[in-house]
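Researcher: Go.
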Amino acid sequence: MTYTLVIGDRGYSSWSLRGWLLFDAFDIPVKTLQARLYTDELPTLLRDFPPARTAPTLRTPAGTVVPESLAIAEELASRHPEASLWPADPEHRAVARVLAAEMHAGFSALRTHCPMNLRVSYTDCDPPPPVLADLARLETIWTWAREATGSRTPWLCGGYSAADVFFAPVAARIAGYNLPVGPMATAYVNAHLCHPSFRRWRAMGLVDGADQDFYRRDWPRRDWPGPVPLPAHPVAGTEAENAACPYSGGPVTHVLELAGRRFGFCNAFCRDKTAADPEAWPRFMALYRGETAP
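Model: Structure:
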């Protein structure tokens, strides 16, 4: 058996992003079950995961249900010490846990005014004073963490840790709503946008369902400020360079085109998530470059 993780819409569910990053970014295998927010899908699915009420919710291989991302982080850290979800240094680990706890419980103004939406980026969202106060607090604790741990990496406590996982949706909000932050915070946001796991999640979030009206805003839009994806696009037919899907090994049923070349996949989702950001997917890029898949 393996872990099972219930998630909501990838493009919108900030808590689900945290839960999934705790697995993907630390190479812990997991099976995901997805349900649409603002429908009956999520409460219906969670009937099989009592006492959970929200996404993400974890079921361990032995069957124990663990709701809430902070509990999931601590449980995975205790079960997989080799994954280094928290810093090894006890003082740095304490700092990281402070960060995760404050993020888990706070910043309600930012959450309310700027709900995470990985499908768009706005030129301006006219942030009110409480949102600006939340941004100032973020910069305060991010600066404190880097100084307290002596971090010389893009991350808050040295190596990428669960503390950074908890701020990934905040980075998405700052990028998506073009929120005003200083150079240190901007560099931290950019590190998140370039992180391989974040790019994979966003690529899936761009194609895994219709837009949710709850997140629609009428503000002027701009291009997403993260890495510019290679210009791939879906095409009709099944003719492709490869006979098997680079992910499942299944037969080719759907195809994308990139740089005049055609590559095949076993289903529309495999194709579309790859077309959204080809460089986010090492197995596809190995195929594209003629290398052995990792």
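Model: The chain has a mean pLDDT of 96.
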